[in-house]
Amino acid sequence: MKLTDAKLCEELECLLGASEEIPLMVSLLRELGLITWRLVMGPVANRMWKMLKGRYQRAETGERSGPALRFRVLSQTAPSSGSGKALAEKKLTESRKDGEKRQTSGIAFIVTIKEEKVEKPANTQLADHTLLSSTPGSVPDNRHYNIHKLPLLNMRPKQMLRLWFSMLILTLLLLFWFGVLITRDSPSPATQNSSLRGYSKISPHRKIEFLDVHCSHCAVVSSSGQMLGVGAGDEIDRTGCVIRMNNAPTRGYEKDVGNRTTIRVVSHTSVPLLVGNEKYYFKQSASTTYVFWGPKRNMRQDGKGIIFNVLLKLAIKYRKLNMYVLTQDKIEYCDSVFQNETGKNRMKTGAFLSTGFFTMILAMDMCDRISVYGMIDDNYCSRANHSDVPYHYYEQKSISECRMYTYHEFTQRGGHRFITEKSIYAKWATQHNIQFKHPAWQL
């Protein structure tokens, strides 16, 4: 069965430890540490232990060090036969001084090669390789072809200990560096709000990345005509994060709605409106983070999602633009929230959740305190003295807000349940730090 891109992303997310389980990095670092120990640290530590143990034993027995090691090797290049048969012997001799026997305890670090004239069969070479210790006077007056020093094999215990600790520190630094490379592009489950994992970044490279933002105080600015004439622009701009919806503009309405936009939540139906004014929304507002939502048929990521394909082209064109899309799991979660609050299945009633509903969910995910501007309560339109304002503050000749709300609330198919959603927000306001302004709500 062929996996779609979205399904593949979910599989990769599982493999890369995107869940709360132990990340793959831990296993990689563990294996790397074991390999490093076996190849580097283990042999060095073993060698140091043997040297320390030998020194201790010699100190206990009173033995002295400094003997010579000598060995002879006969090598033959022709096939072995008769007197020309290859011989190999290794003879360990102990040097004596004044008749006292001294036991071999070290490894020599001077190598001499002595040529001897010996009768030998044809194609046979004889060489006397003598390893002499550093004892003064132990080097004979022979012809030296090569002299090598072997510091690793003749180190003192303190030197070996320093080397061991140096290699240990180097290994730890390497492990830390690998850990930084692995984790620098992956959000940590311990520090990132798990609720924000429902907002996946639109990336040309299909890189798995989630929204990671937190605000102590957020201003959710409604697109309602209630914002006209309230003069809340300065108050809104002083808020830490400002959240707007769809294509609601600020230019020309700064006094009432402010100028700043931190996050803009956009419906799939409003994407063409943003693309029609691409320079204003995506080029001049490059610092704004966009969060898009829509049904699966329009947002699928296998090349057949019409709206997602448009957004992907924008992400390629504007590389610095931060655009996210609600995952299918997040949309299903929002549906379940609506059903739990109302007891009604959204799909069976033929309704669609509004952009305002998704915006309120996002605000509760990322904000400690929320101030909502220009949103009416569920009983507003039933009051006799309610004001008649346009549905959108930037479309003053459009249908009135209450008329639009009433139509959608009672339509059979394809409408938004605006009034029902407002009753849900009133309940949330008693459970979270949410305040409604212009107009104020009586909770």
From TrEMBL:
Q: TM segments?
A: 163-182
State the coiled-coil residue ranges: none
Q: Name one GO biological process term.
A: oligosaccharide metabolic process
| UniProt GO MF annotations | alpha-N-acetylgalactosaminide alpha-2,6-sialyltransferase activity
Tell me what reaction this enzyme catalyses.
Answer: a ganglioside GM1b (d18:1(4E)) + CMP-N-acetyl-beta-neuraminate = a ganglioside GD1alpha (d18:1(4E)) + CMP + H(+)
Q: Which Pfam families match?
A: Glyco_transf_29
Which residue intervals are annotated with compositional bias (Basic and acidic residues) in the record?
87-100
The Swiss-Prot or TrEMBL record describes its family as follows: Belongs to the glycosyltransferase 29 family.
- The molecule here is called Uncharacterized protein
Q: From which source organism is this entry?
A: Gambusia affinis
